[in-house]
UniProtKB/TrEMBL annotation:
Sequence ranges assigned to domain NACHT in this UniProt record: 50-210
Entry keyword Repeat: yes
InterPro entries listed in its UniProt record: NACHT_NTPase, NPHP3-like_N, P-loop_NTPase
One of the Pfam families matching this protein, by short name: NPHP3_N
Gene3D superfamilies found in the cross-reference section: P-loop containing nucleotide triphosphate hydrolases (3.40.50.300)
The protein, known as: NACHT domain-containing protein
Phylogenetic lineage: Eukaryota, Fungi, Dikarya, Ascomycota, Pezizomycotina
Signal peptide stretch: none
Keywords per UniProt: Repeat
């Protein structure tokens, strides 16, 4: 039996770490920042189970934030308060529509999460796959090759979380909108994950675009609309990349207002979409290196926004109503 598959961690490894200080605000009390999102720190450490949903436009940085939260020491510290005397097992999966079938399917996410859990706690293998385990014992330990079905995987997952009383599980699943299925299948996938997180020893952190199918499924869950809150992070990124270019000081001395306007226009036009900003900043830096004037640099960046040429950089265009 093998749950592992090639490229299982490929998508996660493709995600860049956030720019310095980006997303530092995520663990702060929303009341102190004046930003209306549900307190994720409170969600992670309180006794209740359930789901936290992060939504955002394509390119707004959801995957980067999910990786930041999943790998952050603060997350583990808060979850340990929730787990109490129990062992804490943290697992993650990043859907990838541009990848293999297992990187964008229900079977893939279940195999990956189960593999991570059972690799941490090998003693749970017998609990997860009792029939396979007995067959292996009867066969004298000879390995059996098989492809587990979705039903068998769901049954195994439920057995682990329901019968393992000394472990608390944290599931981080990114990019639900990149699941390769119709709306009905996607609703079933979300229902399956939400059912798992209803168990008292399971918490789930999920992310997706703000499509109607997810808005309906996660209504009433604590959540955060990422594209509404990324402006300060985007402004810092633009300032660090553009403002510190060797030519900017010289240009500022001649046309400080023009340089300020350029950076402000980039931030304003971004609508919270980090990927768009990244592409525009690359264009601006190229212009600075080529000794273009401010107006020459401004033209392609503003044209890119108006024509929305950046949409071609996403391999999958939205196909569902945003709601």
């Amino acid at each position: 039996m093998s749950l592992w598959f090639p490229l299982m961690k490929d998508r996660e490894e493709m995600i860049h770490d956030p720019h310095n200080q980006t997303f530092d605000w995520i663990f702060r009390d929303p009341a102190e920042t004046g930003k209306p999102w549900d307190d994720i720190g409170k969600f992670l450490q309180t006794a209740s189970s359930g789901t936290y949903w992060i939504s955002g436009k394509a390119g707004s940085g959801k995957s980067t934030l999910m990786k930041y939260i999943s790998n952050n020491a603060t997350t583990r510290r808060l979850l340990l308060r929730w787990a109490g005397q129990n062992e804490l097992v943290m697992v993650s999966f990043y859907f990838y529509h541009g990848g293999s079938e297992l990187q964008k399917s229900e079977v893939g996410v279940l195999r990956s999460l189960l593999y991570q859990i059972l690799a941490t706690r090998p003693g749970l293998i017998q609990l997860a796959f009792p029939e396979r385990f007995r067959a292996l014992c009867i066969a004298g330990g000879q390995r059996e090759t098989f492809e587990p079905s979705p039903t068998e995987l769901r049954r195994a997952f439920n057995a682990v979380v329901q019968k393992c009383s000394d472990v608390n599980f944290f599931l981080a699943v990114d990019g639900l909108d990149e699941y390769n299925g119709a709306d009905a299948d996607m609703s079933l996938l979300v229902s399956m994950v939400r059912d798992l997180t209803q168990h008292s020893k399971v918490k789930g952190l999920l992310s997706s675009r703000p499509w109607a199918v997810f808005q309906q499924s996660f209504a009433g869950c604590p959540q955060l609309r990422l594209h509404d809150f990324t402006r300060p992070d985007i402004a810092r990124f633009v300032s660090a990349k553009v403002g510190q270019h060797s030519r900017v000081q010289t240009m500022t001395a001649k046309d400080s207002q023009g340089v300020d306007n350029l950076m402000t226009e980039i931030v304003d036009a971004s609508c919270g979409v980090f990927l768009w900003v990244y592409l525009v900043v690359l264009s601006v830096l190229e212009g600075l290196t080529n000794y273009d004037m401010v107006e020459e640099i401004r033209y392609p960046s503003t044209t890119l926004h108006k024509r929305q040429d950046f949409s071609c950089s996403w391999k999958r265009a939205p196909s569902r109503t945003s709601g």
